[in-house]
Amino acid sequence: MPPSRNTTEEQRDIAALWLAKQTGGSLTPDERRELEHWLNVDPANRLAWDEMRVLWARLEKPAQQAAASSPPRGVVARQMMSPKAWLTATCAGAVAVFAVWVVNPHFLEDLQADVVSGHAYVMPVRLPDGSVARVGADTAIAFDFDTTRRHVRLLRGEAFFEVTPGSTPAFTVDVDGDQIRVVGTGFNVDRKSGRTTVAVEHGEVAVRGAHDRTSRHLTPGQQIAVTSGAGGTVEEADLDASLAWLSGRLVVRQVPVSDVIAALGRHTSQRLLVRGSVSGRRISGTFSLDDVDGSLDTIAAAVDATVVRALPLVTLMF
């Protein structure tokens, strides 16, 4: 189960922490009621919870198989079956869930991908038809090419596609049901939670949201945002901002801090979290993708926020 377009990263973060506490057996009665309230207040919260449970099941299954293949005997068996042993195993499982959430929250997506990039801002990938995908940091793509289809799925992140002109069949990019269809062109696709933005540098593309009945055609210098499967209005693109990542820059103009932090988060092994009213404040500027810590400090100074590096792999802005 890949992360749903109906859940946000924050909801998945909260679900992972609740699951870690529940698996570790440390939920108090008040916390159980708080968890139930959180699950019931928004259907997307329960969906995020289910996604984390799927992740936990995939982690737990190999351990169960290993135990089944080597059944413990004698004293070892009694130790393994003791309440203390079960508690230790449960706590270890909770730690495993939390560790995956911190180190690789996109574990399930990566299982489906043919290409997963690291934290470098550009990773060139030559596709089977000769087209080139310049894959951004923390991006995952899967592709299916044969004589009848040239199909790419953008599972996460951002990519600039330079499609071989004049080739058939038509080249398509799918983002959770949103489809970009081209013949020969260069265009950028940026996937964020529940939103896909397509900007065309040259050529022409047709974009249809998962819930749209017709496609919208984009020509050079135009862009469109598809939100929750519905395409918006075709607008003039800010190509300098859209393509700045190709040269190691993040250019934003009146963008919420939460979106800026999410973009910077692709370029570091740190888990970057933003909480409170700071997340909705808007900011403009140019930030280096080579110096994420410096960019975070610059943003914090601009919006009067505090940056706390709470854990070795987690940084919080509030």
UniProtKB/TrEMBL annotation:
Name of the featured protein: Transmembrane sensor
Species whose genome carries this gene: Aquamicrobium lusatiense
Domain FecR N-terminal: residue ranges: 15-53
Domain of life per record: Bacteria
A molecular function GO annotation: sigma factor antagonist activity
Pfam families with a match to the protein in the record: DUF4880, FecR
Gene3D superfamilies noted in UniProt: 2.60.120.1440
Entry keywords, A to Z: Membrane, Transmembrane
Residue stretches in coiled coil: none
PANTHER family per the UniProt record, alphabetical: PERIPLASMIC SIGNAL SENSOR AND SIGMA FACTOR ACTIVATOR FECR-RELATED, PROTEIN FECR
InterPro entries: FecR, FecR_N, Ferrdict_sens_TM
Domain named FecR protein: residues: 123-205
